[in-house]
Amino acid sequence: MSQDVETIGFSSTRLDQIRNLLASTHDEGDLMGAAVQVARNGVPVAPICVGRRRLEDEGAAVEKDTIFLVASITKPIVTSAAGRLIERGLLSLDDRVADHLSGFEAAGKEEVLIRHLMTHTSGLPDQIPENRAYREAHRPLSDFVARTCELPPAFPPGTKVSYQSSGINVLGTIIERLTGMSLPEHLDEIFFTPLGLKDTGLGIQTRNERESDVVMAGEGLTHGGSGTDFDWNSDYWRGLGAPWGGLLTTIEEMMRLMLLFRAGGEVGGARCLSEATVRTLVTDQASALPDLDPAESLKQRWGLGWRLGGRSSSIYGDLTSDATFGHGGATGTVAWHDPESDVTCVIFTNDPDAASWLRPRISNLVMGAAL
Questions:
Q1: Which of 3, 33, 96 is nearest to 347 (CA)?
Q2: Is-contact 247 74, C-beta < 8 A?
Q3: Which residues are annotated as catalytic?
Q4: What is the pLDDT of residues 91-103, one digit of tens each?
Q5: Does pTM top 0.90 for this prediction?
Q6: Is 297 strand, coil or helix?
Q7: Structural domains in the chain?
């Protein structure tokens, strides 16, 4: 690490421990590849890159421009696009979902609000029961939405917190109807192009040579086992553009997105969201629901699509403040910002099993390195 790291606000010796941990885990055969970038007071340090990006190519090293599938980190980007529609008067948190999506009211979902979709309190399932079958058949997103509309809620909306990818899929459809654009096109217009993100996108049809594979652990998984034509490495998944988990990006471009939210919606002269919108997105919204048991809000603390820190979860390690916001991804990724320490962290791996313990440990090392 260069001395510049100290000027930015980190101990170079402490940050070297992150590289050492990743390198030793890779050398022991327990990690295929990873990239980590941190920032202090909005100033990023050069990324740490370790290992390889391809399952069958030992020479394909992870580099700072390697493109990762970030999985559910996609969700808060989509909910933030909905936040932009709210600040423009096209949508409200207390709008009924059925008022924007005809047929959604079926099976007792008349009272589900946009607010419930964005706080994971809708009663919808994480995935539709036929999730694997639909992926195997290469069904389009519209079929997933149509099936979600048929399902009854598992509980009255606003009474429990239960993570629901299917709700974010419904929200993506509503965004498309309100904007008259596909969700990938809209995200590109409002976020990726203004921020100069050339390697970030949703629903990308063509595989980039710099794209990373994801280690697939065995068969029988809902997202497809190794070598199936519908798993995370498949052309189908890349092109599907799932609002709940299809975003592709690099470590530096994800950092730029996180710094946008750190700075209240404007970075590098590009104003993408109002300060009021960002504040609402990244602060606790679920606990204000009148029918929600307080114990539920402590179990998972949610802004609008952004998962908040808290002692009941170590997704951001053990040392970040309760004000921390971000999201994790099942492909082995996490991105977070702690407003109290003004530390921002992006951790990308392509190895979900290794990431399950590496992400919180690296997050602790990052916080321990802050001067």
A1: 33
A2: yes
A3: 72
A4: 999 999 999 999 9
A5: yes
A6: helix
A7: 4-70+187-280+312-369 (3.40.710.10), 74-181 (no CATH)
